[in-house]
Write the structure tokens for this entry.
Amino acid sequence: MIGFRVEIPGIPKSPNESRRTHWARNSVDAAGFRRAAKIAARVELRRRGIPPKEIPITPAAVHLTFVLVRAQGDLDNLVAAAKPIIDGLVDSGVLGGDGVLRLPLLTAGWRRGPEKAVVVEITKVET
């Protein structure tokens, strides 16, 4: 597998946004994004007909592109907010794990778009 791309609608709450919300609400929100990432990855695997022997992608490089309606917020907070998305990709089997040995490279950027989303691109890192 050369690369894998999945788009998750919306953006999880950043740590700054989460601290003003009850922990139970934050847990429900994070679980929703984790589930959305898992489902989106499995749908993409099925759509592309990728056999199970080609996953997980490990070690992997992950690039996150945050699609924002307007330029606001801090990129480092957005990266921290993406934890449930990465965890969902691990749950789906696409990533072999999110420890530093299995995910040695994580990069991020942003672009404008009509609706908020997180685009995740995964490639295998040659060791």
Observations:
- The beta strands are 3-9, 60-68, 105-112, 117-124.
- The mean pLDDT is 89.
- The CA atoms of residues 12 and 30 lie 7 Å apart.
